[in-house]
């Protein structure tokens, strides 16, 4: 008999057993390391799920996308200003009634754009498939990312079919890669540099890959079906100019939307330079926006 080669294929992530639950904080269940996709020729991609205990029905979802210049980072790291929080931001969101999903995605050393966007689309599809097992309402999904993760959250929110994503939050995110050379101070950014983080993402220097750079830019994909957006960016960001968030807000307004744009006075990248209270306020704004998008508070999408 011929060998059954189909047995060599990886198992379907939609049918794999879910991880054994842990209880990292009162009122919170954590499923760590669930496999949501197995890219051909790549490592299995996993996600953590922070779930509210004793939910009485399907719960809304926040998908957190980590930063790290597309080149590094940990899926459960919301940034240095929040690592010492007890309970942490994800547990707080779960206590507020959200499921929090923290996925891995392929880094730029593993695969160039659009692999990262494809991975986030795959985790959204996996959540829809496993919604019954996990007690989720995927129609109320909010994407939230910081830095490069904010870029990927916005790019995913704007390239999914309308209605897939209920809202998107970005913290100090690049949104227009061809515009970085104009937005950065003169002499601090070289669009021809093949070793820049943007070049590693695109598979070549942005100046030499203009079509790919535009396709990897959230501003390119703004349309009538865009979800509500909350854009938070420090006025003193020395790594990603605040003009990048302004560009996305302007594109959304030009398409008839009303994004919430908040330029945080004195904030540098990673919220360096902010007081503890001001950094906590950025999280509070994010939670309030997610509640509005999920229908557990006021209307989303209003603001400057």
Automatic annotation (TrEMBL):
Entry-linked InterPro entries: AB_hydrolase_fold (IPR029058), BD-FAE-like_dom (IPR049492), GDXG_lipolytic_enzyme (IPR050300)
Annotated keywords: Hydrolase
Residues annotated as signal peptide: none
Domain BD-FAE-like, chain residue ranges per copy: 48-252
A Pfam family it matches: BD-FAE
PANTHER family in UniProt: AB HYDROLASE SUPERFAMILY PROTEIN C4A8.06C, ALPHA_BETA HYDROLASE
Protein name listed in UniProt: Acetyl esterase/lipase
Organism: Streptomyces griseoviridis
């Amino acid at each position: 008999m011929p060998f059954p080669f189909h047995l060599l294929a990886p198992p379907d992530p939609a049918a794999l057993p879910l991880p054994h639950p842990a209880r990292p904080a009162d009122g919170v269940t954590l499923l760590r390391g669930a496999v949501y996709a197995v890219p051909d020729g790549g490592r299995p991609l996993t996600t953590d799920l922070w779930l509210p205990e004793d939910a009485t029905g399907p719960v809304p979802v926040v998908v957190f996308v980590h930063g790290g210049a597309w080149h590094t980072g940990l899926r459960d790291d919301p940034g240095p200003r929040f690592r010492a929080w007890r309970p942490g931001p994800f547990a707080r969101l779960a206590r507020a009634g959200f499921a929090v999903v923290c996925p891995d995605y392929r880094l730029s050393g593993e695969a160039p754009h659009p692999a990262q966007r494809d991975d986030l689309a795959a985790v959204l599809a996996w959540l829809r498939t496993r919604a019954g097992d996990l007690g989720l309402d995927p129609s109320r999904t909010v994407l939230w990312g910081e830095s490069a993760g904010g870029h990927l959250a916005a790019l995913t929110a704007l390239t999914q079919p309308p209605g897939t994503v209920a809202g998107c939050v970005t913290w100090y995110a690049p949104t227009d890669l061809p515009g970085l050379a104009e937005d950065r101070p003169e002499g601090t950014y070289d669009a021809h540099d093949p070793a820049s983080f943007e070049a590693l993402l695109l598979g070549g220097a942005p100046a030499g890959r203009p079509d790919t750079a535009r396709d990897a830019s959230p501003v390119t994909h703004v349309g009538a079906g865009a979800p509500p957006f909350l854009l938070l960016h420090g006025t003193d960001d020395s790594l990603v100019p605040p003009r990048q968030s302004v560009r996305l807000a302007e594109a959304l307004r030009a398409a008839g939307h009303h994004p919430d744009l908040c330029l945080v006075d004195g904030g540098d990248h990673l919220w360096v330079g902010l007081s503890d209270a001001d950094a906590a306020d950025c999280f509070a704004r994010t939670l309030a926006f997610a509640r509005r998008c999920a229908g557990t508070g006021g209307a989303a999408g209003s603001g400057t």
